[in-house]
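#struct-queue
[09:14] JT: dropping the first one here, sequence first, then the structure tokens:
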Amino acid sequence: MKKYIWIIASVAVIFLVYHFSIQSKNTRLENALAIQYSNQLTTASEKLTKLSDSIDQTLLFKDREALDKPLEDVWRISSDVRASISALPIDHETSTVWMNYLSRIGNGASLVKTGKIPIEEWQKNMTSARDNLRELSNQWAFTNKDEGKKDYIVNTFVLNKVNKDNEKSWKQLGDSAKAYTESDFPMTASETDHQKKKDLQQIEDSDVSLEQIKQKFVQLFPELKDATIHTTESSNDAPYPFYHLQYHKGIRIGYADFTKKGGHLLSFLMERPFENTTISAEQMKEKAKSYMKSFDYADTELVDFRENHIAWHLSFARVEAENKALVYADGIQLKIAKDNGELLGLNAMEYIQKEKIGPQEIKPLNYKELFSDDFSVEEERLCFVENKELQQRLAYEILTRSDSIGTYKIYIDTENHEILQAEKLP
């Protein structure tokens, strides 16, 4: 009798172990699937918002050439969104309705681009379509609430999909989840990272000595003349030669970097405690202007500034001498203390790496032919921005606004009137 009881107990133990093992595997699979579907929902939501933004740009222009790229984007992104929605574990009826809706948007953009549908008819229909897309995006975001809460995602999507009609097994879905979480291709080195390693060959100045750099440091920062300074030179494998000065004076510590060629200030950083007092924005701008002049960076203009609880963060761009156009690629960033306006940080790397600017014709724009009737131009100035070939092009920087669509900053080539960039402002 004891023998049978032992056998039964052993079988029960084995069954329980097997049951918990299977349950554990299913739980892990549910977690993997929840992450997969959460990522899919997030991606679909982001693409819908991007599609809506692209439609906004087709409402901005009425010029055919200016509309060409936005319409191409709408056709391309709508196809991409359809692929994302088709992969979502939603019921067939809902999927079909939205797939058809997106197909009509993509096909409509293509027909407008080829001239088969008047742009006026497209813009009239898309005013409501953009709102529908944002509503769907918000629905996906709500469904994916609580950062893809596992129980909600599993109950709504995983269990809805798995074995609903015995179409798929847990193993097949497990293989699918694994495929989604593995990378098939290794990452390649970033081309932009390579661009950051310019060797400053355009600087034709002679080399300066370390002693000269120390003197320049005191000249630029006289309040630190009594600081303890430790100096080093860049290593042999550095992209360009520079001097690194570390300083310490009382509660202030930091560093400054200077190029070996010409002794140009590349960067500066200071750390110290902060008081509760706050200077005004106008005082901050005057302080920044004074710093730029003393560093011999006076050929710049303030283009943006922001603040946090301890400092102002400012961005400057070089002003091209011939036509006063901003060269955004030749930028300088400043950090100024809010309590007394003291310089806390500077980054002049982009400014030192000056862009080569070539001559370019300036042809006037006809805004009435370019923009839709409900858009008004509020500001215009010249600047240099990159085109698709990464060439610096002289462009009109135009701030235009519509009560229904919002405010856009648009960059248009002054010579061929190509739309280089179109950015919707918050």
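[09:21] JT: and here's the second one, same format:
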Amino acid sequence: MKLAMIGFGQAGGKVLDKFLEYDQRHGSKIVRSAVAVNTAKADLMGLEHVPEENRILVGQSRVKGHGVGADNELGAEVVEEDINEIQGAIDQIPVHEVDAFLILAGLGGGTGSGGAPVLAKHLKRIYTEPVYGLGILPGGDEGGIYTLNAARSFQTFVGEVDNLLVFDNDNWRKTGESVQGGYDEINDEIVKRFGVLFGAGEVETGDTVAESVVDSSEIINTLAGGGVSTVGYARETVENDQSSGGILSKFTGGNESKAEDTANTTNRITSLVRKATLGRLTLPCEPEGAERALLVTAGPPAFLNRKGIERGRKWLEEQTGSMEVRGGDYPIPESNHVAAVVLLSGVTNVERIKDLQRVAVEAQENIEEIREESEEKLQELVGDDEDELEPLF
């Protein structure tokens, strides 16, 4: 799937940078064009792979390149004011060559949280291509203001995109991990999962042809119902001996060995599909009730087969209760891993979002209460008991 990616804010820009690095390393040709947008000049300068001419600094008249300080209302305002500058960069994108737009943003901060929904609304008004969001939720330990920002942005972003893919930092941070190390690893996990999903069908594999092709239309149709989506991923190392046609060295006998090889391949795929679905999803949820699903199995062609994919797809139908479950394979001849990626679209059984909203409401009430108390105390401080003093103006 060929995407025009726009990274908003610090988190969105870093994930965009990681996608470009992934693209270069794997030759997956996912990112057709990349634009980074920020209100903080330092964040844009820290990017390594986004072309300098595609790094757009907005809000200079308001915040002078220093960011919006986690104020997502201000973030939305400055993006609205400078939307033509962003559009100028997007005008350089060969839109006829892309399948969709993908807006990447951390939802807890200011620029991405506020600006990403504004851009999504703008793009949907102008283009016929789907506009997707990839929203990153902050960890629960990052503070009430970031949770409040995320809840408000999430609510707005979902309504402005054709589908919102979500990655929950709270589900991925490790105890005792440094902040920088934690975010680097999280960004790697984001790109690994979505890279395999969006890369299906885009890698040039010579004479290798998928048994059951997954292309951009399969992804678009899976996301077409809108709402919120999550992605699961599982992989297993295999002995990929390409010199012997990619078959495991121990399977060198006759028909019995081939049958055993086929059985092992099928069992491996179905096991990976279960792990991907029931393991750590990008947004924790129950698969039951998902409106649509897509299964992609990736790896050396010798370790992929139609029977395994069909079994995995049928199991997904049972788990989700949906008849709209698509599946296919993504051959990567040089890989030493077999992986399964499961996209669950239109999920509704998501306790994490309900928790996020509860904490956000508490944070909002607390902020309002503190503000009212502060105003009262300020009046007590500056006012005189007899009310004899008069202010200058």
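[09:30] RK: nice, looked through the second one.
[09:31] RK: The first strand starts at residue 3 and ends at 8.
[09:31] JT: good to know. Residues 216-345 form a domain with the 60s Ribosomal Protein L30; Chain: A; fold (CATH 3.30.1330.20).
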